[in-house]
Amino acid sequence: MFVCEGNICRSPLAERVLSKALEGVDQGIAVTSAGTRARVGEPMDEMTAEIARELGVDPTGHLAHQVTSQDLREASLVLTANRDQRSAVVRLHPRAVKYALTIRQLGRILEEGADRGELPTVDSLPPNERVDALLSFVMRRRGLRYRLDPSADNVIDPYGQSAEVHQLAVTQMLPALNLLSTALGGSPVGWPAGRRAKF
């Protein structure tokens, strides 16, 4: 489950990107999203939706959803857009402290694990067990590196801002989403050939 604030920009895009990236993986991994202060019932933000289409992801059909304690009880892994939202998730469901991280924090841990050849091999596991195996690896390592700048774990909030800020938010999330997808046996999703995000 991906969680941001309004559930119309960052978390629904992350949900759709990861779902697309995992299309080739056997069924068994459900990807969802919600907001800590969701704009309930609203579709994906139009600027975010345009970027989704550029990534080959269908933004239609999304309706913003308010995160609930039941959502968090049912989730195996919760990835938030920033540290404040992670704190909100843990306040709502304290047991989520064991499986909630920010998107960029997860990406950093996976990148370090991949660089060292330490990521667990999950290809032989059923899809529903792959997330648990990967989460076990991530949780053992999340406290090993101290970040001098906690804001490095946050994805910028693009709501109401320029197209460039929307692109920046996506670019901050994509590496982690692709690392997660690849670790679970999926494929990366990227900008079209020749496309360059502008900042």
Automatic annotation (TrEMBL):
Domain of life assignment: Bacteria
Gene3D superfamilies: 3.40.50.2300
Alphabetical list of Pfam families matching this protein: LMWPc (PF01451)
Entry protein name: protein-tyrosine-phosphatase
InterPro entries recorded: LMW_PTPase, Ptyr_pPase, Ptyr_pPase_sf
Keywords of this entry: Hydrolase
GO molecular function, a single term: protein tyrosine phosphatase activity
Signal sequence annotation: none
EC number(s) given by UniProt: 3.1.3.48
Domain Phosphotyrosine protein phosphatase I: 1-116
Keyword Phosphoprotein: no
